[in-house]
């Protein structure tokens, strides 16, 4: 299936966006570390001193550039095409984490990278062509259909419970809490970004959409969702290993975004069964690649601890446990044996 001109434009913007965003993870992580070292309070335990760290702002600017490119990409191509290409940011992040942060990338991680690229190519080839939208009112009708309203309601309820119940109790020990909040809010922000981007695109083409209150409502939703994403992503990055946060966030965010897009924009309407299955298979390959990066990261850490041999598979809570805001991502900085870590965990409990 050939790509339309608009899909090609969206593809190029999405690829550029992933390069910037992947780099921003590493720059921001360095800024968070510097801020924690300088002021003694980590973002993972509620500190906001990273706002005084110039390097963190460099990372933010880099991410903003990537997000702007991503924002524009959604105005040209469907979310089913744009969102999975975020896998490239995982590749960039993993490679730079190995080179700069010394968070080792196992040799098998290369297989994960290849899988991400292969899956992305499959998705690009079978990407759907969107029906042209002539007014923000059309998008508003899509956003207020019962099925999508049910999805939005479910997201709001889940985020509420995660923010006020799970985050205070297990946010620092379970990576799924912070990344889950980011991903849920991210799926709503992407839908709003696509609506807002399409509105601005139509406005620049001479069909003014700023006269409609719906355009401004979508802008408000984007602002709220992005602020929440930034806050909890910072907490996740500062608390857990970058090579863990990035793939988990990508898997959850991409899955939820594609689901939301299918419900709201009906991306799969008009596509054949074989095409849809090809997209699903491509998506599974991408997800498998990101999981491969995650698992090989754990393998490398366990291997280095034991001095060789097949590593055991410690539980997630043991591997990510933290009692004072410092996660086990410090393995690169603290040469601590598994026995010492287990003893410290028992003492803190």
UniProtKB/TrEMBL annotation:
It is found in: Cell membrane; Early endosome. InterPro entries: EmrE-like, Mg_trans_NIPA. It comes from the Eukaryota. The keyword Transmembrane helix applies. The keyword Cell membrane applies. SUPFAM superfamilies: Multidrug resistance efflux transporter EmrE (SSF103481). Residues 327-349 are annotated as: Disordered. GO terms for cellular component: early endosome; membrane; plasma membrane. Keywords: Cell membrane, Endosome, Ion transport, Magnesium, Membrane, Transmembrane, Transmembrane helix, Transport. One of its GO terms (biological process) is magnesium ion transport. The chain crosses the membrane at residues 6-27, 48-65, 71-96, 108-128, 148-168, 175-196, 216-233, 240-264, 276-296. GO terms for molecular function: magnesium ion transmembrane transporter activity. Pfam families: Mg_trans_NIPA. It is a multi-pass membrane protein. Homodimer. Acts as a Mg(2+) transporter. Can also transport other divalent cations such as Fe(2+), Sr(2+), Ba(2+), Mn(2+) and Co(2+) but to a much less extent than Mg(2+). Belongs to the NIPA (TC 2.A.7) family. PANTHER family: MAGNESIUM TRANSPORTER-RELATED (PTHR12570:SF19), PTHR12570. This is Probable magnesium transporter. It comes from Medicago truncatula (Barrel medic).
